[in-house]
Amino acid sequence: MVMSKTDNTEALKLRRKVLGARIQDFEKKIKHLTREIADEKAKPAFKTSKDPRHSKFQDLARRNVAKLQDKLDEVTELRAKALAELNKCNLVIKGQAV
Predict the structure, then answer these.
(1) What is the Cα–Cα distance from 94 to 88, expressed in whole angstroms?
(2) What is the pTM of this model?
(3) Which of 17, 41, 72, 98 is the most buried (most CB within 10 A)?
């Protein structure tokens, strides 16, 4: 079964809408994670201290920031992939790519 060009275009426009919504969700997650990282770094436990009693809290704060940064990197990568696919859809719809 061969799809006509109009069916293909309509499907791409629908796919573009879905990708746009997904990118917005990723951007919201990125904003939230960035804010969480800033809040974690603002905590007193993240500051350096010479007191050995504070070391376990400092280690915990560093681990929390590392976890959040890993999540942020993952979401940023997913957003970039979705954006690349969206751009490809836009080019196909405009007739600039096959």
Answers:
(1) 10
(2) 0.79
(3) 72
Query: Which residues does 71 contact at the CB level (< 8 Å), separation at least 6?
Result: 33
Angle at 38 between CA 33 and CA 40, to 5 degrees: 95
pLDDT tens by residue, 49-68: 777 777 888 888 889 999 99
Q: Radius of gyration over alpha carbons of the chain, in Å?
A: 22
* pLDDT of the residue at 80: 96
SS3 95: coil
Alpha carbon distance 67, 40 (integer Å)? 11
Q: How far apart are CA 12 and CA 88, in angstroms?
A: 10
